[in-house]
From TrEMBL:
Specifically catalyzes the dephosphorylation of 2-phosphoglycolate. Is involved in the dissimilation of the intracellular 2-phosphoglycolate formed during the DNA repair of 3'-phosphoglycolate ends, a major class of DNA lesions induced by oxidative stress. It comes from the Bacteria. The keyword Hydrolase applies. The lineage of its organism: Bacteria, Pseudomonadati, Pseudomonadota, Alphaproteobacteria, Hyphomicrobiales. This is Phosphoglycolate phosphatase. It comes from Lichenibacterium minor. Pathway: Organic acid metabolism; glycolate biosynthesis; glycolate from 2-phosphoglycolate: step 1/1. It catalyses: 2-phosphoglycolate + H2O = glycolate + phosphate.
């Protein structure tokens, strides 16, 4: 028997792609519906990373405005509609993503996505960015009964991809991703340019990289220890 293929599971927003401009644009759209002022894109690091509903909650909290659950659900529907109409107006893959995937693929790796975006929205964005077909599966907040940081989201993604947790590495940009990987007992590479309000090294991932040029070596060093 041969060993199972090694698998790299990526987060999406702030990891594979810079999406803050479009996400904050959608947030500001729904804030305006309740007469709230727009928030600058440079606040994205502290607001993004837990999905659309959490983003809207955080936006209202920043404005000091209470938000009940019924209104949240209405605004979330409006947020999704606006966002999907503008899903890649400003979003783009980070430099080096495609080259890093090419190198890892040549070394026998396969890829998956585990994000707190809705699954359909994640697939639409990755298609717009031209890389959806690179992933065995793209799993989102609504794919499983749980979402990150619950380990079941990551373990479920690995299972759907046909991978083995013993031959897997997670790549993310936030405490949510690192906590998920630790709970699932999967090694984690963190990028230091994503959406987090504290330095990502604070959360003690196994490796930290500052450019995708370093990803293949970081992942290879971890898979070699599995």
């Amino acid at each position: 028997m041969t060993d199972p293929f090694p698998l790299v599971v990526f987060d999406l927003d702030g990891t594979l792609a810079e999406t803050a401009g479009d996400l904050m644009g959608a947030l500001n759209h729904v804030l305006s519906l309740d007469g709230l002022p727009p928030l600058p894109v440079d606040q994205a690091r502290s607001l993004l990373g837990a999905g659309g509903r959490a983003l809207i909650r955080r936006g209202f909290a920043s404005a000091g405005r209470p938000l009940d659950e019924n209104r949240l659900e209405d605004l979330f529907r409006r947020f999704l509609a606006f966002y999907e109409d503008h899903i890649a107006d400003h979003s783009h893959l980070y430099p080096g993503v495609v080259a890093a995937m090419d190198r890892l693929e040549a070394d026998g790796f396969a890829f998956a996505v585990c994000t707190n975006k809705l699954e359909g929205t994640a697939k639409r964005l990755l298609a717009a960015l031209g890389v959806a077909d690179r992933f065995k599966v793209i799993c989102g907040q609504d794919t499983f009964a749980v979402s990150k940081p619950e380990p079941g989201a990551l373990l479920g993604t690995i299972a759907r991809a046909g991978g083995d947790p013993a031959r897997c590495v997670m790549v993310g940009d936030s405490r949510t991703d690192i906590d998920t990987a630790k709970a699932a007992r999967i090694p984690c590479v963190a990028v230091d340019f994503g959406y987090t309000d504290r330095p990502v090294a604070t959360f003690e991932p196994d490796r930290v990289i500052s450019h995708f040029d370093a990803l293949a070596d970081a992942v290879g060093s971890l898979v070699g220890t599995l």
